[in-house]
Design a protein that fits this description.
Elements: E1 4-15, E2 18-29, E3 33-37, H1 44-51, E4 59-64, E5 67-68, H2 78-81, E6 84-87, H3 99-110, H4 115-128, H5 144-155, E7 162-166, H6 174-191, E8 194-198, H7 202-208, E9 211-216, E10 219-224, H8 226-231, H9 235-246
Parallel strand pairs: 3-8, 3-9, 6-7, 7-8
Antiparallel strand pairs: 1-2, 1-4, 4-5, 9-10
């Protein structure tokens, strides 16, 4: 069995007295792709933000390489954040920065490198996502699919050990959905990262993932392979699959 890179225990999070996560527990293996499924408002994106250290839970542990990040202060999170890249929903590019400068941003934050080396890294990461030559383009000049790919290049710019994908195919047409799905698989193969994908797209999830985790009513209802998921007799799993088929 692979060593766990992330261990989540009894995670609880609420907003305005509404409890979103009610004791989430999950172990994520180094080098795997795990997809977190669930209906709208079940807390999937919240869980990603907690893993990234962007928010804090009221209770529970999030251990990354055995270190609990929950009690860490902001300056103590810096070495943890060097291990994590995140593709935000909608890509979340800086509108005032070119595509190249968006990719360079985390490199400048975390490392002091010569400008020539930074630009070389930027070109390489954009090449990996199939966007050679767009360094000077502004986000307003890019299509939705291209923005997602620039966001992905930014996520891998500092060679993270973990990549978090928040709804990577939402809002994309079928061609770009297929392209992003393929990129997630290829990056997993090429750079050997641990990938955590939040999505509502079952077809994409089946294509990319080693395991699936269903988040239901603030807890993990099931974790398993695609085959185990499809064969599951757990009612929440069956209901989720049936709903997606109807959609």
């Amino acid at each position: 069995m692979k060593r766990l890179i992330i261990e989540i225990r009894d995670l609880q999070k609420s907003y305005n007295n509404l409890q979103v996560l009610q004791g989430v527990g999950l172990g994520i293996q180094r080098g795997e792709t795990i997809t977190i499924l669930g209906g709208s408002g079940t807390g999937k994106s919240v869980l990603l933000k907690l893993i990234a250290g962007l928010e804090k839970p009221e209770q529970g542990e999030i251990r990354i390489d055995k270190r609990d990040i929950v009690p860490l202060k902001e300056h103590e999170m810096v070495p943890i954040r060097r291990k994590i890249g995140m593709l935000f929903q909608g890509a979340a590019l800086f509108d005032s920065l070119s595509a190249g400068e968006n990719v360079a941003y985390p490199i400048r934050v975390h490392f002091r490198l010569p400008e020539e080396e930074i630009q070389q890294i930027v070109r390489e990461k954009l090449r990996l996502v199939g966007l050679e030559g767009v360094e000077e383009k502004m986000p307003a000049e890019l299509s939705g699919g291209m923005k997602k790919r620039v966001g992905l290049a930014r996520a891998i710019a500092i060679d993270p050990e973990i990549i978090l994908y928040d709804e990577p195919t939402t809002g994309l047409d079928p061609a770009n959905t297929k392209r992003i799905t393929h990129l997630i698989v290829e990056l997993q193969r090429i750079i050997k990262v641990t990938s955590i994908v939040v999505t509502h797209d079952l077809d994409s999830a089946y294509a990319i993932t080693d395991r699936l985790a269903l988040l239901h009513r603030g807890r993990i209802a099931m974790v398993g392979t695609k085959e185990e998921f499809l064969a599951s007799e757990i009612q929440e799993v069956q209901d989720f699959i049936a709903k997606k088929i109807v959609e």
